[in-house]
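Minutes, project huddle
Topic: does the predicted pose make sense with phosphoenolpyruvate bound?
PN asked that the exact inputs be recorded in the minutes so nobody has to dig through chat later. Recorded below.
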Amino acid sequence: MDKIIVHGGTRLSGRVKVSGAKNAVLPIIAAALLAGTGKSVIHDVPALDDVHTIGNVLTALGAEATYDNGILEVDATRVNKTETPYELIRKMRASFLVMGPLLARFGNARVSLPGGCAIGTRPIDQHLKGFEAMGAHIEIGQGFIDASVKGRLQGTKIYLDIASVGATENIMMAATLAEGTTIIENAAQEPEIVDLANYLNAMGAKVRGAGTGTIKIEGVEQLFGAVHTVIPDRIEAGTFMIAAAITRGDIYIEGAISDHLRPVIAKLREMGVIIKEDENGIHVTATGKLKAVDVKTLPHPGFPTDMQSQFMALLMTSDGSSIVSETVFENRFMHVDEFKRMGAKIKIEGRSAVVQGNQKLQGAEVTATDLRAGAALILVGLVSEGKTEVGGLHHIDRGYVDLTGKLRSLGATITRLSEEAEKKEAQEATAENTSSNVIKLRTSYA
Ligand SMILES: CC(=O)N[C@H]1[C@@H](OP(=O)(O)OP(=O)(O)OC[C@H]2O[C@@H](n3ccc(=O)[nH]c3=O)[C@H](O)[C@@H]2O)O[C@H](CO)[C@@H](O)[C@@H]1O
Ligand SMILES: C=C(OP(=O)(O)O)C(=O)O
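Predicted holo structure (tokens), as shared on screen:
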């Protein structure tokens, strides 16, 4: 397995460009299935494993998709299947987002039930509740969900028990081709929802209110391929903001949109980090001691759960103790045990973690337990004494474009070691040890 090797101790500085948002592009690619005619041309598509996976889902359904240099072209005209196998859903839960578009366009969809994952059980009851309210018949069996509707889905009012991002997106997509108007109440308000609505509207949909708690979708008869540029990844941007703060560095994050990062900016400022916002990005500078602060994750516009582990990494270097509360996912503290391997002093009490600041951190061999945990371990490695080896990179590759290269360009001592290179290095080290033993033995004989 590949590994990332980080040597801590460098203050990062320079400029880094944010890629397109993973969590925006995945629903957008699923939504491309809604176009009965015409090609969609999607710009700023990040080269991520997750994008590859959802691309494979689309082609497995019969769509044509090509990716070149950040531009994804999708022609869904000839889609002729409505079944998505477990093999593809298993790799990435967001594949489940094809259900709404398939059901709306073809009147049926058979999608494998997504399993649980490291951060929580992640049920899909709110997605299904929405489809049922719109007239779909749902059957669950043998690991699949079958959804079907006679004629078109019917517009209706749907109140979500939880402001779920995925459920809001799936229902919003389904509603675009429904008969009549659908109103989603207690809708998720994440910037990625707004980006999806913008793409849907470019396709000919009539979606209003995205970004607020109430979204209205007036159904139309047909949608067409459209041109769209994906928003910058606020979580990637936030991760680089933490990289600047944790190394007491100075980084300009090009493309970061301040309005998408309000809670992260507010918390960093509370700690004493200097943040300057302009229309092209965010400039983050930190020096000396940073104040400990408490953090509680919440749906947008609250503090994002996808920044929780990275922020916890920073709090380990702050002056004092902090409480980090995770309210979105029930099992998103898996990184804590890995942090402890690096010398962290953190105590978990239910859904909160008490983090001691001013910790002496030491490099260790650690494993990413989920995508953001992987990024957080690298952040800790940047300020730990000695060498940190991070494994489990398949998680990181799902959501960060060339994280190693981008951090290296900011001055970090970081490399990615492929499995083969690692084997070669181990062989060379063994050979070196053997030869130095030989010399020692010879010396002792002399
Ligand atoms: C691809 C993508 O965009 N992923 C993001 C999306 O995931 P995702 O869309 O899966 O997250 P949700 O907003 O749906 O989940 C939030 C909470 O609601 C629960 N829930 C969700 C749906 C449902 O039907 N029933 C239910 O109980 C979940 O278990 C979780 O505890 O939003 C999360 C919350 O910001 C982020 O961490 C993920 O990075
Ligand atoms: C949890 C995440 O993603 P996903 O919903 O794709 O698992 C994430 O991006 O941190």
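Observations noted during the meeting:
- The radius of gyration is 24 Å.
- The chain is about 35% helix and 25% strand.
No decisions taken; revisit at the next huddle.
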